[in-house]
Amino acid sequence: MTEIIGVRFKSGGKQYYFDPKGTQVQAGQGVIIETSRGVEYGECVQANTMVEDSAVVQPLRPLVRIATPKDLETVRRNHEKEERAFRICQEKIADHGLDMKLVDVEYNFDGNKILFFFTSECRVDFRALVKDLASVFHTRIELRQIGVRDEAKMLGGLGICGRPFCCCGFLDDFQPVSIKMAKTQSLSLNPTKISGTCGRLMCCLKYEQDAYEDAVKRMPKNESFVETPDGVGTVSQVNLLRETVKVRLDDEPENPRCYHNCEICVVRNGKGKRPEGYVAPPPEELAKLRKVTAPPESEEDRLSAALANLTLAEEPKPAAPAPEEGSEGEKRSRRRRSRSKKPAQAAKPQGEEAPAKESRGDKPRTERPARPPKPKSERPAPAKEAKEHTESAPAQEGGEGQESTKKPRRRYRRPRGNRPKGEGGAPKAE
């Protein structure tokens, strides 16, 4: 394992790794670093970190020291000198009539070297310019030609998206971008729309290229012969982002239809002849390719559903839950018990009240509303008094006493399954 720190010399510049030599450095602190160009001032962007030996290139340049207030004052004076050197260099370029554009000037930390960065569309003979600059500054002069992308990175600015340049913000290295990426992403090939401020293809074309390449492998090509839920046809347009295709059906070539990638079956990928001897499947088989999707829920449906849930939550709960229904056998036994209970209550005298006993599975009784009185012509004959029934019952049993002139009440017989063992057919009166 190797201990390293990350240092950046310019805002938005590349990050370099150095050996801290056991010094604890915090992110944001200024440091003095020994580089190939001499002693330089930089800003620490990554504190002390342990990494694998294979992750860095040996040998690492050492850290000289953490920047002191005196070092910061030296950096400030160098920035003032850079502004003066920039003006002087522009005047010298105009005097010599050179076809070059000065971009930036950078002073070394020690002040013994000055770098001039410029751009040009052709080679420039600047030997005379170097002599004039050396006579003015009395130090070592170096002119370096850079590309338009490096120029945009140094100057900065806003892109067509409204954000700062990617190269000036977070990109350490420039990735190669080609016109093939714009074709794969189905973008307009107009240079003004796919080019950045620097005049080259936008770096952001590289960001989504892997996703588009993966979608191209799964989607059919144009002019492919496919099977759809509505029939067979030829692909006329492919949308890689939505993964949909437009198909010209053989039955309706003038009205292309849009299908999802999962709703089609590719018979021939790309342009070519239709397979020999191909027979289209029946409509029932093609209908199975259709993707079943739930209709989108409207805002009114969502509001009504939320209101119904709120109403159900506010309703009071019942005091006792109703008993659950049992099997068919339990229902029949409940009906039998309810039928056997009614005649037993009618046979008892009027003055005597029967104890209220409910079976285990009986439901609680509810009071019914009183019916209006019927006219006399429709009223039934008055029922027999309970006393007569009680007097006639012993005479019928033992054969003694005077027989009642009225018709005896029909005897009730319990079902065989519910008849108690050793009990007669008719209940005895008390």
Structural notes for this entry:
This protein is of the alpha+beta class and 430 residues long. It has helices spanning 69-96, 127-137, 148-155, 166-169, 179-184, 191-194, 209-218, 283-287, 299-314, 328-346, 386-398; strands at 2-8, 15-18, 30-35, 38-51, 63-66, 101-107, 113-119, 140-145, 225-228, 231-239, 244-249, 257-260, 265-268. Among the domains are: 2-67, no CATH class; 74-146, 2-Layer Sandwich (GMP Synthetase, Chain A, domain 3); 154-214, no CATH class; 219-287, SH3 type barrels, CATH 2.30.30.140. The protein is built from eleven helices and 13 strands. The strands form three sheets. The chain has a five-stranded antiparallel sheet. It has a five-stranded antiparallel sheet with strand order 12-11-10-9-13. It has a three-stranded mixed sheet with strand order 6-7-8, with helices on both faces. The termini are far apart. This is PSP1 C-terminal domain-containing protein. Residues 350-391 have a biased composition (Basic and acidic residues). Residues 61-146 form the PSP1 C-terminal domain.
